[in-house]
Amino acid sequence: MMKLQQADGKIALVAGATRGAGRAIAIKLGETGATVYVTGRTTRKHTSPMKRKETIEETAELVTKAGGKGVPLQIDHTYEGQVQALVEEIQQNEGRLDIAVNDVWGGDPLTDWMAAVGDHNLRNGLQLLQQAVTSHIITTHYAVPLLRKSNQALLIEITDGTDYSYRGNFYYSLAKISNIHMASAAAHDLRKDRITACAVTPGFLRSEAMLDLFGVTEDNWQDGVKQDPHFIASETPFYLGEAIKHLSLDPNFQRFSGKVLSTWELSDIYNFNDADGRRPHWGNYYNEHLT
Predict the structure, then answer these.
(1) How many CA atoms lie within 13 A of 114 on its CB side?
(2) 271 three-class SS
(3) What is the pLDDT of residue 1?
(4) Band of pLDDT at residue 49, cut at 50, 70 and 90
């Protein structure tokens, strides 16, 4: 097992940490003792168009409970002024940023999986790209100067998939493949700034929304296999969170600059399991059952 460095009070921003992958990433970074700024649109007083019950305040409290310091800030990352104000607040409070994770999504209700390009609702498709691509560009633009103040910074794009193949929907594919290329391009641009940029993908993510879709809970999630046999290879958001946690603690994470990584690959490298004790390997499962 690779030896990881000790936590040293890192400052992190998880953009899109209200629920799912973002929440799990924030909590796992909290386990390292990091101060984690958690952003999103849903608060205890305001519900986003996602119409979900999870809030950024809950995420921040879970970060603090895990051993870090959670700081919730209501931010819509598609608005430049809000992101600029966010980074200015981190600058004023912390003086630097060590980890930035672009996880803003919110595209599930905007994606029509049955509609081909030309038939898909154009407004929804463009809004999806605004949320999943433009928001990441805006966040990266304002975060980079603060990342440069870190001794060794990490900029992570959360994506879906490890290559450039079609992902079942025109707009979804554009978004997720863009996230991969953004990490690659940022790694090239920032290679002299001690900023490591990479993309990380989960496998079949068993998020709160996915559990609701299948009508199951985390306790009986395997019942979802009755609806989709591939659900047996799913993973909790904490598998991705554990991957990001270990990556952030690796003293040699620079070797991954420009790469697209996966939960299953990083679990092999760092020897960790999912929250339920399993070690799902979506890459192997996909090759054996879906190709």
Answers:
(1) 0
(2) coil
(3) 47
(4) confident
Q: Which CATH architecture has domain 11-205+236-283?
A: 3-Layer(aba) Sandwich (3.40)
Site of tokens 């996602």: 50
The domain locations on the chain are 11-205+236-283
Question: Quick one: 174 exposed, middle or buried, by C-beta within 10 A (0-12, 13-18, 19+)?
Answer: middle
Number of neighbouring beta carbons within 10 Å of residue 257: 19
pTM higher than 0.90: yes
Contact 245, 251 (CB under 8 A): no
- Torsion angles phi and psi, residue 276, rounded to 5: -90, 10
> What is the tens place of the pLDDT at every residue in 7-30?
568 999 999 999 999 999 999 999
Whether 56 shows a pLDDT value over 60: the answer reads yes
State how far the alpha carbon of 254 is from the alpha carbons of 150, 180, 266, in Å: 14, 17, 14
